[in-house]
Amino acid sequence: VVSMTGSPYDLGSVDLTKNMEIYGLEDADGTRPVIMGTVSVNGTIDHFRCEGIEWNGNGYEIGRPVQIKDATTTSINEVIFKNCTITGFENGIFYSSDKVTNSDVGTLTFEGCDIYDIPGSGGDGIDIRDIDNKEVVKFGNINFINNTVYNSFRTFMRIDEYVNITGKITVRNNTIMGVSTFDNSNNRGIIGIQATSAAGKIEFSSNLFLHMETVSTMSSHNKNLPISSFTFSNNHFFDVNEEFFNDQCTEANAIAGGG
To answer: Which of 44-53, 91-100, 176-185, 243-252 has the highest mean pLDDT?
Structure first.
């Protein structure tokens, strides 16, 4: 448990080789204790849990708060950020690179978080790469629920073709504003999910998308996983650019099920 007394806490770069739980004691005005640093999951552990913390990238000096360590065989049952603030990172909020040897993540959850000012010049929000076209990266459930996101990311969610999704991907009850506006050929829009194993397992529901300007799109690199294999319901869009919807995700696709 961490309090405001010692905030900010300079964590640095930590290899996570055993379970970790961090809980913040907020001030009466809702201010959260600040941790500056990044955690790299390394080995076989059960969980990393965090609640009531502001994770801060110290003015874009740090890439992201959590990642799977490169060149490792890793297994973790649960990674969860709940009621946290995540801001000031350079690249994104979660990363599993194409240099991981083998990884198995049971559940990845961001719930009730405020996420902002993460420009994503060299990475994506939730960024899960495959490795040499091999199915050695496995994820169960990915949950992104009740969050507020703004001014962040190159691509909101990138999951490469050979990543093995065994559970569900749920994006529900979020407010998403000014996301995927970085002008770069690797900008895949809101949806950059190409994992064919995820077909029929993806839900986008009851989200509000607004102020999607310039180069932002709902999807632009989704050829391996047709948008018809997604479930959309009750999503609403306000002030999006003229090219936000396209042939990979039309407006009719995005507002299906009411919106």
So the answer is: 44-53
- Residue 12 one-letter amino acid: G
* Cβ atoms within 10 Å of 167's Cβ, excluding its own: 15
pLDDT digits (tens, 9 = 90+) for 81-130: 999 999 999 999 999 998 988 999 999 999 999 999 998 877 899 999 99
- pTM of the predicted model as reported, rounded to 2 decimal places: 0.95
For every residue of the chain, which 3-state class applies, written as one string?
CECHHHCCEEEEEEEECCCEEEEECCCCCCCCCEEEEEEEECCEEEEEEEECCEEECCCCCCCCCEEECCCCEEEEEEEEEECCEEECCCCCCEEECCCCCEEEEEEEEEECCEEEEECCCCCCCEEECCECCECCEEEEEEEEECCEEEEECCCCEEECCCCEECCCEEEECCEEEEECCCCCCCCCCCEEECCHHHCCCEEEECCEEEEECCCCCCECCCCCCCHHHEEEECCEEEEECCCCCECCECHHHHCCCCC
Query: What is the dihedral sign for C-alpha 180, 181, 182, 187?
Result: positive
Angle (CA) 66 165 64, round 5° = 15
CA–CA dist 51, 20 (Å, integer): 12
Query: Angle at CA 245, nearest 5°, toward 239 and 248?
Result: 160
CA dist., res. 153 & res. 122, Å (int): 9
**What is the rounded distance in angstroms from the CA atom of residue 47 to the CA atom of residue 209?**
31
pLDDT one-digit tens code per residue, 19-37: 999 999 999 898 999 999 9
What value does the mean pLDDT take over residues 64-78?
94
